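Recap slide: Indolepyruvate ferredoxin oxidoreductase subunit beta, sequence and predicted structure.
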Amino acid sequence: MSDVKKVRIFMTGVGGQGTLTATTLLAQTVLAQGLPVTSGEIHGMAQRGGVVESTVLIGCKSPKIGLGEADILIGFEPMETMRALPYLKQGGLVVSSIEFMPPLAVAMGKQECPAIDDIKKAVSACTDKAYYMANQTIGLEAGAVQSGNVAMLGAVCAAGDLPFGPEALEAAIKANLPEKIQAVNLKALELGVAALNA
């Protein structure tokens, strides 16, 4: 256990996006590699529109990630990426959506929605290892909007910061997802890897 490289992954999105499904799938991928994994939901209102935050930790005993401790930040919604930046360690990896799903406060006009350029600027102050994807568009191209999350997981696996690559995620999709949604998610994985390398 002591020779396992510790990787702390912080995931954030809004309810209804499938953040927790993505968390479970990533944890199953880690497990299948024979690596110790802990995952947890930090807090979240899983109803549509609420903030959902979760963690996947490889080789760590605690499921918690403190400020400045996350090696990888996956933001399924850009405003949530910006909100979660304090958890990212300096120089960590960010994979973020560029497509907004504004929270209720923004939709009701009580809060301003930042521009993507502002979010990119905030991220670049923390790290130069950042990738941005139109995950909902990619999901739709693959056949289901929620599969955009798998595209982002594929990009994270291809970025080289995890102790495994996209083929491990592919195997986990085949082993854990219902057969009727496997093809869509495998296509999303392929598109996510391609988007990272574009």
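The CA atoms of residues 151 and 188 lie 5 Å apart.
DSSP finds eight helices and six strands in the chain.
(End of recap.)
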